Amino acid sequence: MLRRGKIERRYPVALTALQVYANPQFGDILATMTIDFTFFAFAIPAVLFAGISKGGFGSGAAFAATPFLALILEPAQAVGLMLPLLMLMDIGALRPYWKQWDWPSCRALILGAVPGIMLGIAFFRVANADVIRFLIGFVAVAFVAYRGARSIGWLRRGRGAMSDRAGMLAGAVAGFTSFVSHAGGPPAAIFLLSRSLSKTGFQATTVMVFWAVNMMKFAPYVALGIISANTFIADLYLAPVALLGVWAGVWFHRMVSEKVFFLITYVLLLSTGSKLIWDALL
User: Is 94 exposed, middle or buried (0-12, 13-18, 19+ CB in 10 A)?
Assistant: First the structure.
């Protein structure tokens, strides 16, 4: 267990920079984080699952790691812990899909994400832990509801490809939900699915978009105090798991049915999302 005094001695400059801009309500992020058996029992499967999604299934399920981790960590801690790992996964996933993305779709989503990220920054500066917990849970449950409505025909995708302007709107939503809970995949997927991309083109475009989005999120996360010395140390332990997940995802992309993977995702999101909403309202 890392005590705050040790962190202050080892990382004085980083800690000072975090405290200058951090929301005072997130002071607990800089406090002690216990790295024990319970932590790894939740963190290892969460990070592995996120890596598999990042590497092989369009990142649509990667955000399931956040609500899962939020069951044992403060919501902002869970978000801060995952971002450096997601960035590492992005780097690992870029090479297998290099230059196979659809650049017009990338451009629309990335440009649209900028105002969404700015809105996310404003939200984090005023929100408390229960509000963030509720929002993470709501996004998780809403995603399952949306996919369920699609599967039974209550919602239908338009026949034509969505315009670049619609892509920028989807990017704005993705930027906000990604900043708050790393859940930018679903709104981006709605836009990309309308563009009739190949399976690999869809995956490559998603990897490129969220590499850029996660890069843009890093500095605000540090400034707000969402990322701390504690989360960085925990990330060092989990980095090999993240890379293993990405490599497994690239293999699963070619070998495993998407239906099986996403069925597991829906069960995980519905259960953890419901629990977070319940905890936030109590």
Answer: middle
- How far is it, in rounded angstroms, from Cα 93 to Cα 253? 12
The candidate with the shortest Cα–Cα distance to 211, out of 87, 101, 63, 110, is 87
- Is the pTM here over 0.90, yes or no? no
Write out pLDDT tens, residues 88-120.
Answer: 888 877 887 788 888 999 999 999 999 999 999
Least confident of 33-47, 54-68, 128-142, 209-223: 54-68
Q: Which has the closest alpha carbon to 197: 90, 88, 89, 97?
A: 97
pLDDT averaged over every residue in the chain: 79
Task: Write the DSSP string, the chain.
Answer: ---HHHHHHH-HHHHHHHHHHS-GGGGGGGS----SHHHHHHHHHHHHHHHHHHHHSTTTTGGGHHHHHTTTS-HHHHHHHHHHHHHHHHHHHHGGGTT-S-HHHHHHHHHHHHHHHHHHHHHHHH--HHHHHHHHHHHHHHHHHHHHHHHTTSS---SSPPPHHHHHHHHHHHHHHHHHHS--HHHHHHHHHTTT--HHHHHHHHHHHHHHHHHHHHHHHHHHTSS-HHHHHHHHHHHHHHHHHHHHHHHHHHHS-HHHHHHHHHHHHHHHHHHHHHHHH-
